[in-house]
Design a protein that fits this description.
The chain has 486 residues and is an alpha/beta fold. It is built from 22 helices and 9 strands. It has helices at residues 4-7, 10-18, 32-38, 54-60, 67-74, 89-98, 102-105, 115-119, 123-130, 143-150, 168-185, 202-210, 215-242, 274-277, 304-311, 329-333, 341-350, 357-393, 399-431, 456-460, 475-478, 481-485, and strands at 43-49, 76-81, 135-140, 158-161, 194-200, 246-252, 278-284, 294-296, 335-336. A 9-stranded mixed beta sheet has the order 4-3-5-1-6-7-2-8-9, sandwiched between helices. The relative contact order is 0.16. Pfam families: Phosphodiest. Keywords: Signal. Residues 1-23 form the signal peptide.
C-alpha cells in the first residue's frame, strides 16, 4: 500500500512545511531538509538489552566509545522503574512488546505460552495487521522473541533466530552483525518502511552468574555499548545514503541485584529491590534533533509499543496502559534539559525505592510461585544432570548405567514436576492480580476473515484533511506520474 505522504509531490510538502497549508502546523525553522524527511520511509529500530542497570551504564559506558552515550546525545533518556510489577524477563518484555502491564497480559514466569499474545497482540501483530507493507524483523539469540514474533495470525516478516557462539557475548556479536546487515540493506529499497527489534542478552547472563556489582557485569555493559555503537554507525550510514531519518528506541526489561547470593549464583532479579526494578528508556525520534540530550521524567516501558505504532500512523488500542511518547501532552511536558544529564539521571535512579509493603509481599509470592517450575527445569536440574552425564561418559561398569537411569528418571519426573509447578504458579498469580483485567478491544480477526467492503467515502469519513494552497500551480501536472518518472 502506498501511503499518502508518498504520493504528495515535493511542492505540496514544501507548502505544508512552509505553513501555507493547514494540514500541518509547522514549527519555525523547518527547512527543505525536513521536507525531504517527510517524504522518506519510516524506519523504527528497537534495541533491547536484558537486565541492564542504568547506573552501571552511567558508570562504565557513558563515553564516546559507547552506543549508550551516542543514543543519549542523539535523543531523550529516562531513568524509569517498574516497581509494583514483576521483574522477571518474560513478564517485563511482554509488557514492553504489548503496551500493557502484567495485570492484563498475565505473564508471570519465563515459561513461554502463546495465549497471552493472542489476547493481547504484540507490536509485531499490530503492525502486520494494520500495515502489512511495513517490513518487520526480529533478531535474537533468545527463543522468547522469535516465538512472540511468530504468535498470532500476523507474524513478523523476518524472524531471525541467531545460533552459534559459545558465550552470550559471542551470540550478541552475531546479533549485532545481522542487525547491521539488515540496516544497510534498507538502502537497497529506500521506499519500504521497516521495524526492527534487536536483542542483546549478555548483561543479564553476567548478572545471574556473577551479580550486578561484578567485573563481569561491567564488561558486559561495555560490550553491549560497543555493539550498539556499531549499530548506530550503520544507521548513520543508511541515513546518509537515503536521506531518511530513523527513530531509535532502547530499553531494558529490569535491573539486577548487586551480589551473588546462592553459592556463587545470583538470583539476579524477580523481587522488588530498587536495583531489580530499575529500567530505562531512550528515544531518538526521527526528525526531532531539537530534543537531543534531553531527559524525560515521564517515559515508562509500557510506552514502547504505542510509540512504535504512532510512528507508523497505526491506531492505538483503547486498552493500552502506555501512550505514544512523541505525542502525549503529559509526556511532552515532562521533558527537561539538565545541565548535567549524567547527574540528573543518577538523581532520578536514587529517588526510586520499594513499593508499599502489601504490594511487595504480593509480588514476592507471585514471583516465587510463578518462577518455581522454570527455576527447577532450567537451574536446579541441569547441574545434577550434567554431573550424571560425566559419569555416563566415563563408561564405568554398572555405575555409568545407574547414572544413565537416574538421568532418565530425573528428566521425566523433573519435567512433569516443573509443569505442575508452573500451572500452580499461574493460579497463584491470578489470585494475586495477574491477568485479571480482560481486553476492551476485540481480538484481531483471523487473516482473510474480515475484508473492508464499504465505499471510499466511508473509509475516509473520519480522516478528512485540508489540501495545501499550491499558489496557483497546475495541480494535474504536479501529480502527473509520467512526468515525475521521466
Amino acid at each position: 500500500m502506498t501511503t499518502l505522504k508518498r504520493v504528495l509531490c515535493g511542492a505540496a510538502v514544501a507548502s505544508l512545511v512552509a505553513g501555507t497549508g493547514s494540514a500541518v502546523e509547522a514549527r519555525a525553522g523547518l527547512s527543505a531538509v525536513t521536507a525531504e524527511w517527510m517524504l522518506a520511509a519510516e524506519h523504527v529500530l528497537l534495541l533491547g538489552t536484558d537486565g541492564t542497570n542504568l547506573d552501571k551504564i552511567l558508570e562504565y559506558a557513558y563515553n564516546d566509545d559507547s552506543g549508550f552515550k551516542m543514543l543519549m546525545d542523539r535523543g531523550i533518556t529516562a531513568a524509569t522503574t517498574i516497581a509494583g510489577h514483576m521483574t522477571m524477563s518474560t513478564p517485563s518484555w511482554s509488557t514492553i512488546l504489548t503496551g500493557v502491564w502484567d495485570d492484563k497480559h498475565g505473564v508471570v514466569s519465563n515459561v513461554y505460552r502463546p495465549e497471552p499474545y493472542t489476547t493481547w497482540p504484540s507490536v509485531f501483530n499490530l503492525i502486520e495487521y494494520h500495515k502489512p507493507e511495513v517490513e518487520t524483523t526480529v533478531i535474537s539469540g533468545r527463543g522468547l522473541f522469535t516465538e512472540i514474533a511468530s504468535t498470532g495470525g500476523y507474524p513478523a516478516d523476518n524472524i531471525i533466530g541467531i545460533s552459534g557462539g559459545s558465550t552470550s557475548a559471542e551470540m550478541d556479536a552475531l546479533v549485532t552483525q545481522e542487525t547491521i546487515s539488515r540496516i544497510l540493506a534498507t538502502t537497497n529499497n529506500p521506499n519500504i518502511d521497516t521495524f526492527m527489534f534487536s536483542y542483546q542478552s549478555q548483561v543479564d547472563h553476567a548478572g545471574h552468574s556473577y551479580g550486578g556489582g561484578s567485573d563481569q557485569y561491567r564488561d558486559a555493559v561495555i560490550n553491549v555499548g560497543a555493539n550498539w555503537k556499531e549499530i548506530l554507525e550503520a544507521v548513520a550510514q543508511a541515513e546518509a545514503a537515503t536521506g531518511d531519518r530513523w527513530t531509535i528506541i532502547a530499553v531494558t526489561d529490569h535491573g539486577h541485584q548487586q551480589n551473588p547470593d546462592l553459592f556463587g549464583f545470583s538470583l539476579g532479579h524477580g523481587f522488588q529491590s530498587p536495583n531489580e526494578t530499575s529500567s530505562f528508556v531512550m528515544l531518538s525520534l526521527a526528525g526531532n534533533e531539537a530534543q537531543a540530550g534531553g531527559q524525560s521524567l515521564s517515559y515508562q516501558t509500557i510506552d514502547i509499543t504505542p510509540t512504535i505504532l504512532q510512528a507508523f500512523g497505526i491506531p492505538m488500542r483503547s486498552d493500552f496502559d502506555g501512550v505514544p511518547m512523541q505525542t502525549d501532552p503529559d509526556i511532552l511536558n515532562g521533558i527537561v534539559f539538565p545541565a548535567d544529564l549524567k547527574q540528573a539521571l543518577t538523581d532520578a535512579i536514587n529517588s526510586y525505592g520499594y513499593p508499599d509493603i502489601g504490594t511487595d509481599i504480593m509480588l514476592s509470592i507471585r514471583a516465587l510461585a510463578g518462577g518455581a517450575g522454570y527455576f527447577l527445569e532450567n537451574y536446579a536440574l541441569p547441574p545434577i544432570l550434567n554431573f550424571l552425564q560425566s559419569i555416563v561418559d566415563q563408561d564405568i561398569f554398572l555405575i555409568s548405567g545407574l547414572a544413565e537411569g537416574t538421568q532418565w528418571v530425573l528428566k521425566t519426573v523433573g519435567a512433569a514436576t516443573a509443569d505442575v509447578l508452573t500451572d500452580i504458579g499461574r493460579v497463584v498469580a491470578y489470585f494475586t492480580g495477574a491477568g485479571v483485567i480482560p481486553p476492551n478491544d476485540a481480538p484481531l480477526p483471523l487473516p482473510g476473515a474480515a475484508e473492508f467492503t464499504g465505499s471510499l467515502e466511508a473509509l475516509l469519513a473520519d480522516h478528512a484533511f485540508t489540501a495545501p494552497d499550491l499558489g496557483g500551480a497546475d495541480a494535474p501536472s504536479l501529480l502527473d506520474v509520467d512526468a515525475l518518472l521521466s
